[in-house]
Design brief:
This is 23S rRNA (Uracil(1939)-C(5))-methyltransferase. Belongs to the class I-like SAM-binding methyltransferase superfamily. RNA M5U methyltransferase family. One of its GO terms (biological process) is rRNA base methylation. Its EC number is 2.1.1.190. The longest helix is centred in the N-terminal third of the chain and has 19 residues, at about 80-100. The chain folds into three domains: about 5-55, OB fold (Dihydrolipoamide Acetyltransferase, E2P) (Beta Barrel), CATH 2.40.50; about 80-115 and about 255-430, Rossmann fold (3-Layer(aba) Sandwich), CATH 3.40.50; about 120-250, Beta Barrel (OB fold (Dihydrolipoamide Acetyltransferase, E2P)). The chain has nine helices and 25 strands. The radius of gyration is 24 Å and the shape is flat. Strands 7-22-23-21-20-17-18-19 form an eight-stranded mixed β-sheet, with helices on both faces. Strands 10-9-8-11-12-13-14 form a seven-stranded mixed β-sheet. Helix content is about 25%, strand content about 30%. The chain has helices spanning about 80-100, 155-170, 200-215, 260-270, 295-300, 310-320, 340-345, 360-370, 380-390, and strands at about 5-10, 10, 20, 25-30, 40-45, 50-55, 110, 120-130, 130-135, 145, 175-185, 190-195, 220-225, 230-235, 240-245, 245-250, 285, 305-310, 325-330, 350, 370-375, 395-405, 415-420, 425, 430. The protein is of the alpha+beta class and about 425 residues long. Strand 17 (about 285), helix 5 (about 295-300) and strand 18 (about 305-310) form a beta-alpha-beta unit.
């Protein structure tokens, strides 16, 4: 006889799953449930509790807008109304900052992008007996769901997938699997294909035909697990992206914010966080600068020393800096962080670290004690860890903007501004 258990969902945990207390007193996390709901659970053959039925639904519950929900792993929260997701993401960032040691937090700003606006796609490719499958992994699975529809992706990306399926099916370079990275830029689709086999001469011809037929300026290629730089497999035009009125030529597979709208939200939040008394001689130290998403807007307010560890991205930034007040530096900040004495002279430190956070670099920032720090976070857990050093160093939170640029997912973007009064002379409890 199947064991069942009726209980209430206490809250949404960090991955957006509902937290419940099981009969033995332990916590379990149940997908597709919402805080306050009364639900029925069943125990599966492995002894894990699974959702059987929602007995009393939350008013924040909705019918998922995509037919692939529960199969595609790209969206895990389509059963939740967007306004409720944004509210939960704001609360998650608040909790992260409180965990870091901050109290008396200011009111947060919150922004949310529109459906069908995502301009970046990282897709899995699988060869099947009857063709090629392109899509996303199902949640907690290696299985790939063929992406035949999507309420998140920009229509230009979705419309190109049938042509990709047809071409990739004919490639010798794809034995079992591949990865397909697509950026929608000003110049059109920019594609990086990673395959499990070498690219043959006929493969290159087929990719060149695809580029011509679909008006794709560049298709780059590299073999999976190859640590070198991708090579251009087909090019039919220039690759261009505009950032704050500056045109850059980004390298293959460049990281950009998920949507054009969210990029603007992040830029506006960062600029809003700058001190009002900046002058043209002041220096902003920007860490993890990438191709200049924040660099160019910052340079309109002060001189910018921009540090980036990925040489091709920095080279694209360098080529677009003519006539600006930007000084680019190539530096792997995870292994060679900018030192505290170099940071101390900065009017502002702006950083947009990777998902794991700033780690060693954050220790140097906290020791350098710049008066103003603007931290762009894509991971509340890393934010809590990094910001705890700032709380100990005497900083306060000035403002926070939460951006929901990953619709119906648990991913969260936030821009946090920290300030330390210059009159305070202590450094982690020691005299300077």
């Amino acid at each position: 006889m199947t064991e069942t258990y009726d209980t209430d969902v206490l809250y949404l945990a960090t991955q957006g799953d509902g937290a419940v207390r099981t009969p033995d007193g332990r916590m379990a996390y149940i997908p597709e449930t919402l805080a306050g709901e009364h639900i029925r659970l069943t125990k599966d053959s492995e002894g894990k509790w699974r959702l059987a039925e929602v007995l009393l639904p939350s008013p924040d519950r909705q019918i998922p807008p995509c037919s692939l929900f529960e199969h595609c792993g790209g969206c895990t929260l389509q059963h939740v109304k967007p306004a409720a997701i944004l509210q939960w993401k704001v609360a998650t960032v608040q909790h992260a900052l409180q965990k870091a040691g901050f109290s008396n937090l200011p009111a947060f700003s919150a922004k949310q992008v529109q459906p069908h606006s995502r301009r970046r796609a990282d897709l899995a490719v699988r060869r099947q007996p009857d063709g090629i499958m392109i899509g996303l992994h199902a949640r907690n699975s290696h299985e790939v769901t063929d992406l035949t529809t999507c309420v998140v992706l920009h229509p230009d990306i979705l419309a190109a997938l049938p042509a990709f399926r047809a071409t990739l099916r004919s490639l010798n370079a794809i034995r079992r699997e591949a990865n397909l990275h697509i950026n929608l830029l000003d110049s059109g689709l920019d594609v990086l294909l990673q395959t499990d086999g070498p690219l043959t001469a006929p493969d290159r011809v087929r990719l060149a035909q695809l580029a011509t037929e679909q008006h794709i300026p560049r298709i780059s290629w590299q073999q999976i697990k190859d640590t070198g730089l991708p090579e251009v497999a087909a090019q039919s035009g220039s690759v261009v992206q505009t950032i704050a009125s500056h045109q850059i030529a980004p390298p293959a597979g460049t990281f950009f914010q998920a949507t054009r709208e969210s990029e603007q939200y992040i830029q506006e939040a960062v600029v809003k966080s700058l001190p009002t008394k900046l002058n043209r001689r002041d220096v902003i130290t920007e860490l993890y600068a990438g191709c200049g998403t924040l660099t160019f807007p910052l340079a309109e307010h002060a001189r910018v020393n921009a540090y980036e560890g990925y040489a091709p991205a920095l080279e694209a930034l360098k080529k677009a800096t003519g006539g600006t007040r930007i000084s680019p530096f190539c530096r792997d900040l995870n292994h060679q962080p900018l030192l505290a004495k170099e940071i101390a002279a900065s009017a502002v430190v702006v950083l947009d670290p990777p998902h794991a956070g700033a780690k060693l670099q954050m220790r140097q920032i906290a020791q350098g004690l710049p008066n103003h720090i603007v931290y762009v976070s894509c991971n509340p857990a890393a934010l809590a860890q990094d910001a705890s050093l700032l709380a100990k160093a005497g900083y306060t939170v000035e403002n926070v903007t939460v951006i929901d640029q990953f619709l119906w997912s648990a991913e969260i973007e936030a821009v946090c501004s920290f300030k330390r009064e210059s009159s305070r002379r202590s450094r982690n409890g020691l005299s300077r």
